[in-house]
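Input (Trichome birefringence-like C-terminal domain-containing protein):
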Amino acid sequence: MFVGDSLNRNQWESMVCLLYSAVPDGEKSHACNASLIIYRIKEYNATVEFYWAPFLVESNSDDPLAHSITDRIVMADSIEKHSQHWKGVDYLVFNTYIWWMNTAKMKVLRGSFDEGSKLYDEIERVTAYERVLRTWARWVEANVDSEKTSVFFNSMSPLHIRPVDWGNPGGIKCSKEKLPILDRIGPINVGTDWRMHVVAANLTQSVRGPAVGFLDITGLSEYRKDAHTSVHTIRQGKILSPEQKAEPLVYADCIHWCLPGLPDTWNELLYARIVSSPWRG
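Output:
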């Protein structure tokens, strides 16, 4: 099961595509139930699932169909609403990042949505991120049996919005980029918040009990300015019109990735980690 935001759904889609051709016709099915999407492979009695939880904890963005909320609020200590769906899974792959990036501070609710609470604290993004990941880590420690479940956490997936970052000041977002960033001297800066990377790396390694595999996809993905869906994407479930494609400054998607493409590499890394671990029988 992949748990997180649309970038983890992007990786889930990659995994399903990688498996699809190897599964006989009539032996696979696809079902969507609210926040949970299930791809079932009957011959192997196996499922590959995606669960929508962009902040991992409860938030006002939890509706899988109506979540385009700019004024985002999280319940930093409340994870049970989502985590009840994660139990008994053989492999759990988590992520959370892109939904944190629209503001420098995150609103953390006092109380709960069910109680109609309105008061919140505005906390520095990195501080709130660490608080949420500590909630997640406590859940892993208390609920994951390492003899039955392997846990992984993906580092952040970068975006490519500013062409000046890779030396193309005349470009329009990631539109018409056909090559990765090449011959770069020194670190790349495409706007990734590396403070959050440090938090995620440290917290995943500090989990007591079940070992959490930290899949560091960030650095290699930063080079791939050419791999986004750009104007070859969908918006609200529909392929962009010719008029929309002609306005890449507005419509180019420089967050999500083409398939086949970069998420396949992430899954190859995940596969390598799985097969190199001791078999649990």
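The first strand starts at residue 2 and ends at 4.
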